[in-house]
Known about the structure:
This protein is an alpha+beta fold. It has two domains: 41 residues; 245 residues, no CATH class. The chain is built from eleven helices and eight strands. The N and C termini lie far apart (64 Å). The N terminus is likely disordered.
Amino acid sequence: MKKLLKISFSSLIFAAPLFLSAACTNTNVTxxxxxxxxxxxxxxxxxxLVESFFDNDQKQIQDFYTKQQQIxxxxxxxxxxxxxxxxxxxxxxxxxxGDKVKRTNLAIKKIKSILYQDWFWFLNNIKKQVFVxxxxxxxxDGSVYSSDENLKEKIQNMYQDKTIxxxxxxxxxxxxxxxxITNSKYDQLQNKKxxxxxxxxxxLVPILxxxxxxxxxxxxxxxxxxxxxxxxxxxxxxxxxxSLFEAKxxxxxxxxxxxxxxxxxxxxxxxxKNNNDEKVFDFYRLGNYSEFLKRAIIKINTQGQTQxxxxxxGYVNEDK
Length: 320
């Protein structure tokens, strides 16, 4: 009997690697099939963006999709909670947070993490994202109203005709417009481009593409631009990008004049170093792209027939 048990136990020991190998093989096959099914559900142009981002390295692409399909719905709940304390249209929210400073700081970190890292999730779930009309730049007055009577009337009308919020009907990408950005003297981000992801006929989401320390990044700029009456979107977006950086230069000059009026020895070069492209494309700070985008849109809207409305990411619809 002992001999029989010994033989049986020995057989199990030798057979175990075979069972484990078969189990692992089946798991790997299932995982690959699931990953393939997930990647096939991705919009074609979004998949092109993924392939371009990884230089068509299939191993990296497969690993990326495996990771993406594991992102849980908790991310939606975390964002929707964080945005209550740190709305993206209030770039100075931290300074205005009062006794909510700790929760605001945590909310800012969470939202920044999503914008920095989760560009694929954001685009692949774009129809869940809800955008809020945003005419503000550096300063948000804490309500939908403003001392600007024209703006006040416009917002009231948008509430009435239910255009204050915008959502997209599907995740389908119509086109991707790529606009290169020229570096300035103290810039740290290399090979910068604005990728305007076009949804439907006239709705665009900007994504910042850049390299830093020989590594490539894509960063969500949480805006939705709704364009009316444009014969050539690419030319319009190029003009908008140029106007954004013209607004940045004008803003810097305004700051220089103001600071010199306070201190004739104001170090403007040091100011430029501390307000380079890293700071321009950061979030929740005065003097970031939000103010310049606001000015650029005003310029475009007053120059010609084209009208651009800017909406900012407000929350995620969990039920959509």
